[in-house]
Amino acid sequence: AQSVTQPDIHITVSEGASLELRCNYSYGATPYLFWYVQSPGQGLQLLLKYFSGDTLVQGIKGFEAEFKRSQSSFNLRKPSVHWSDAAEYFCAVAFMEYGNKLVFGAGTILRVKS
Amino acid sequence: EPEVTQTPSHQVTQMGQEVILRCVPISNHLYFYWYRQILGQKVEFLVSFYNNEISEKSEIFDDQFSVERPDGSNFTLKIRSTKLEDSAMYFCASSPETYGYTFGSGTRLTVV
Asked: CA geometry: angle at B70 spanning B65 and B76, to 5°?
């Protein structure tokens, strides 16, 4: 079955430090890749997505992600974290061969310390 | 920016009661979805809907669940006889083509 793995349940970084959140997905020749952010009690906000083309994609709020097909990964990065970035981050993948539903990872909770 | 609107934001219901969760997708979108997130767990796909019929559903989406697009604007999820384990945040999403999802802010359903 299709699956998405976010190996880090919690990450704590200092404000101003760089951030990388990991995401790996199971087999799929044509993955469509997404990162969402969720603040407590709120909905899912799209940060960025990758369908094809340049494997480094830029998103909102200064986030970027890089698709590495050889590693089945789509890691999210930010060079300098702000306290307002504290939230839960979800990686999600749609596998074109398996319909158009999104498969979500378990999420990574980001804490930012001042 | 266009939004997907979900109502109510919170719903408390007695076990065994029917509940209807409502969503207004973005007006020119063609694909509609329901997902749910049990507290502390990952977001799970329930059902997708296109051209007035279910295009895909998960194992969670059993006979207790149904979806409907009763008019040109609303998209509803009905749970016929709620169970305690149906307590979750339910998200509606819509997209203009296959992979351009926009999510609503969710309805928190509590079954007591």
From this structure: 35
If phi > 0 it is left, if psi is from -120 to 50 it is alpha, else beta; for residue A79 that is alpha
B34 and chain A in contact, CB less than 8 A: no
Q: Is 80 exceeded by the pLDDT of residue B25? A: yes
Distances (CA, A) of A107 to A22, A39, B39, B46, B48: 10, 12, 12, 18, 22
Mean pLDDT of A51-59: 93
Contacts of A104 in chain B (CB under 8 A): 35, 42-44
The predicted-structure confidence for B29-59, as pLDDT tens digits, reads as follows 989 999 999 988 889 999 999 988 999 999 9
- Owner of token pair 């409502």: B22
Cβ contact A101–B58 (<8 Å):
yes
Query: Residue A72 burial (CB < 10 Å; 0-12/13-18/19+)?
Result: middle
For chain B, the 3-state helix, strand and coil shares in percent, each to the nearest 5, are 5, 50, 45
Distance, CA of B97 to chain centre: 18
